[in-house]
Amino acid sequence: MRTEDVLAATATGLWRWDHGAGTVTLDAEAARLLELPPAPGVFRESEVRARFHPVDWNEIAGVVGLAVAEGTLAEARLRIVDGSGRVLRTVRSRSRPAPDGEGGKDYVLIGTLQEVADSQSGTAGSHTPITGDWRRSREAFLLDAGRALAEAGSTAEVLRVAYSLSMPGFSPDGLAVFGVEGERLTVVGQHGHSVGDEGPFTDMPLDTDYPATEVVRTGRAIYLPTPDDYRDRYPATWPLARRFGRRSWAFLPLIVSGRTMGTWMAGFRHPVSFSPDERSVLTTVARMLAQALARAGAADTERELSLGLQRTMMPSLGPGIPGMTVAARYVPTGGGLQVGGDWYDLIPLPSGRIALVIGDVQGHDVRAAGLMGQLRIALRAYASEGHRPDAVLARASRFLSGLTDPGEDDEGTAARFATCLYAEADPETGVLDIARAGHPDPVVMTPDGTAVVRQTEGGLPLGVEEDADYPTTRIVLEAGETIMLCTDGLIETGGHDLATGWVRLRPILERHTGDLEKLADALVQAVHGPGSHYTTGPLADRREDDVAVLLLRRDGSTTPPALSRRTALTIAQAEPERISTARQLLRELLHDWTDPDQVDAAVLLLSEVATNVLVHTDGDALMVAQATGAPGERCLRVDVSDGSDELPHKRRPGEMASSGRGLVLMEMLAHTWGVDPRGAGKSIWFELNEAEQPKPALPDLDAFDAPDGL
């Protein structure tokens, strides 16, 4: 009896589908099952396609593609319809695809068609197992799995997502991801096993008779539906798997860019037949898992490289400074890498003093980090030689300008500059000598939380000019006071400028008056954490920037009995614009004063007295402002001293006069005032008491905005 007769007796037909030629060869039984003339023949693909239900036809490509990739049979249930779309019968196809031609895009499908019983035949809307609710659940599962794996940022996160996936209808109870190192298999991660269970599978040679190693060698998936299948195919390693008590296993290749990077194992305690749909789900998850692991691995490598570079370049604060407390933070936010151009440093000096350095090299890339490292080493060398702050910055500027060539473009070695603040601190006296190169001014905080921006003299950023000058400003930290040095990223990140950035930071400085470490964390969190989303500034450009912050506190009582806050400033004859700086310092000192009119009065009187010194003497003015007492009962005393013996006297200015009203304002606005001779000079002072009734209404300040003196 012929084979064709035996197949026809069991309602089984043969077909050969040539995808490249677009033809289908059928025997008589196969033609009958497809409602074509019941005789052997070659038919166009379109003729055969018209006999399948449209939904089932769309499934064929996926099933065949999976079989081609894995080298397995393509199995599917297909509904046969008539011209009106009515389902006539259901057939089962079992075929083996074979590549045809170069490139692997075409294939020849050779197999059988067999009629199967289906009680749902007769309605075009009926569902078969290939298109039912399970398939919709599978599609939803794959969408969720793809999204979760795409969002995972590290290898550990990818593995956690993979272990949490709940596959529709056949969730595994044990998972393992194997990697490859050289010629050996390693365990990247596992789930559903006890600690130590991965021992026999770690560092396994790739020529071992084990499913995961075979998958790595061949790049093809291995499905083991029963323990017998496992034992028969891999007798040498079956004892290793038997103790886990599983019934079915799937080992799938993790392929990225055509290279097998490892194996994903899914183990089941219940029998799984690994139907085409189940294999399709597993294969899709394996592909997504491989891509996610590749991305995460690259990110982990980059992160480890960046962190290592950061640890190498950024200093530790080392042993404590006697009489002082230090805290620092560095957060790279603007360049993607975990390192940038910002830095801070603490340098022991030969004199016994300590140098505090903070700076920012232009850019957020690896080149900026490299220049930062070189500049930091140069600054350390110049400081260790014993140079003063101005000389250290001048030498550093020449050094940086020699590292880059202004003639190159951004692809080469284009010139870059750096801002920097260098402060030499004496732990015993609290004196800080500060030189500044285009960097933000420091902020001084009193023990009660008052934060004042201390404007200091400065020069051009480092690297702009080889022979730039950097004048020095002296600041004295009283016991319990803290100075903050920071880069512009702390101020301007989130769409802020210098003004609005300080407004954002001031409440944080006022709240955290105790632990410096907590203050440093709070400052970083304000611009880098979730709260920063609610404090964005008015500027449209809201790019983030690297953040470096250095805090130094002079030890002592943080709650002095007098509850005093104090600020001082020298106003030179050649710098009359520093009167504006003095006014700003006084406003910041009185930021929480009860009566705003008294604040305006104090600012006006200070402006009058300081201007009098510059106009009527040949020396500089020294302004010292101090507020003492409990809030609501404080007393403000402002002293402006100079080296002239000439005492001010009261005049009677005419209606159009532009000067001569100083003492008149003193009598109108100050609660008390006076002039004290001091050796070869004098001090003009006034006091305002917060608890007293305010003076008469303040005159029009516009008339005295630029006074000419008393």
Tally of helical runs: 18
State the helicity in percent bands. Answer: 25-40%
- The count of strands amounts to 28
**Gross morphology:** elongated
- In quaternary terms, these chains amount to single chain
**Average of per-residue pLDDT values:** 79
Key features of this structure:
alpha+beta; 6-stranded antiparallel β-sheet; disordered C terminus
Overall description:
- With 710 residues, the protein is an alpha+beta fold.
- The protein has 18 helices and 28 strands.
- It has a six-stranded antiparallel beta sheet. Strands 9-8-7-12-11-10 form a six-stranded antiparallel beta sheet, sandwiched between helices. Strands 14, 15, 16, 17, 20 and 21 form a six-stranded mixed beta sheet that branches.
- Strand 11 (248-256) and strand 12 (259-268) form a beta hairpin.
- Helix 4 packs across helix 10, helix 14 packs antiparallel against helix 15 (516-528) and helix 16 runs antiparallel to helix 17.
- The radius of gyration is 41 Å and the shape is elongated.
- The model is unreliable at 119-133, 408-412, 654-658 and 700-710 (pLDDT under 50).
Element layout with pairings:
Layout: H1 3-9, E1 12-18, E2 23-26, H2 28-33, E3 41-44, H3 45-49, H4 54-70, E4 74-81, E5 87-99, E6 107-116, H5 133-151, H6 155-164, E7 174-181, E8 184-191, E9 204-205, H7 211-218, E10 222-224, H8 227-233, H9 238-242, E11 248-256, E12 259-268, H10 276-313, E13 324-331, E14 342-348, E15 354-361, H11 366-384, H12 389-403, E16 418-425, E17 431-437, E18 443-445, E19 451-453, E20 458-459, E21 472-476, E22 482-486, H13 488-492, H14 498-511, H15 516-528, E23 547-554, E24 565-571, H16 578-589, H17 596-616, E25 621-628, E26 635-642, H18 662-669, E27 672-678, E28 681-689
Helix pairs in contact: 4-10, 5-10, 6-10, 11-12, 14-15, 16-17, 17-18
